């Protein structure tokens, strides 16, 4: 059984029973306890469950891992996605970038270009651009959106942020969702983060979703961009084996596999 299939089976069982013992998972999937241990550690890092003594429980309080943890996981996949997304862009373009570990990875690639206008709510992206400006010279025009700081992630959100987005028109919105599937499109767990991403998507000529394989075929609680409104999905090579990727592609978006 492939790793991604195990993840999906464990999560499906957990949605039904709310808690599972290690022995139950091992028996249901026909895998060793050591494999169960590795899988639940990975799923906890994704925010899909919470480990307890002897097993796991559904973690309703958290949909994804803390931002600091997300920066560390699937770094190679995010870098590949960022490099593929870079090929869509040209000097003179105006970009919306929302806050996320994948868009932060894209920021590093953007420093190889010049002449872009970048509009973002991410403090991390803004700081990285400022640091690069000191050593490399100002390569892009950077516009940082005001608003309330979101808890747990250095980014602005709320009515002020959305209002400021409405003042701009971008060539591309490059967005990093919690999940994406053919039914619900790009989704987020947090209503405020989803509100920012939705406004960016509505004010952009092209909507590009950056999502590694772990997000393909998954769904969170707030939809902000229907699959039919997504122009391009950029994902990594591990997503090729997922039936959900083909379903998304049938729904309309161009799929770029990094």
Summarize the structure in short.
With 258 residues, the chain is α/β, with parallel strands linked by helices.
Order of strands in the sheet with most strands = 6-5-4-9-12-14-15
**What is the terminal-to-terminal distance?**
24 Å
User: Helix/strand/pairing class, anyone?
Assistant: alpha/beta
- Unreliable stretches: none
Please give the count of helices: 10
- The number of distinct β-strands equals 15
Overall morphology? elongated
Using the coordinates shown, work out and report the CATH topology of the largest domain. Rossmann fold
Helix content: 25-40%
Mean pLDDT rating: 90
Q: What is the alpha-carbon Rg in Å? A: 19 Å
The total number of structural domains is 2
Gross CATH architecture of the largest domain: 3-Layer(aba) Sandwich
Q: Strand share of the residues?
A: 15-25%
* H/E topology pattern: HEHHEEHHEHEHEEEHEEEHEEEHE
**Largest sheet report:** 7 strands, parallel
CATH class of the largest domain, named Alpha Beta
Question: What does this protein look like?
Answer:
- The model has no long low-confidence stretch (mean pLDDT 90).
- Strands 6-5-4-9-12-14-15 form a 7-stranded parallel beta sheet, with helices on both faces. It has a 3-stranded antiparallel beta sheet with strand order 1-3-2. A 3-stranded antiparallel beta sheet has the order 10-11-13.
- With 258 residues, the protein is an alpha/beta fold.
- The protein starts with a helix and ends with a strand.
- Helix 2 crosses helix 3 (33-45) and helix 6 runs parallel beside helix 7 (123-136).
- 40% of the residues lie in helices and 22% in strands.
- It folds into 2 domains: 3-62, Winged helix-like DNA-binding domain superfamily/Winged helix DNA-binding domain (Arc Repressor Mutant, subunit A), CATH 1.10.10; 69-257, 3-Layer(aba) Sandwich (Rossmann fold).
- Strand 10 (179-181) and strand 11 (185-188) form a beta hairpin.
- The longest helix is centred in the first third of the chain and has 15 residues, at 3-17.
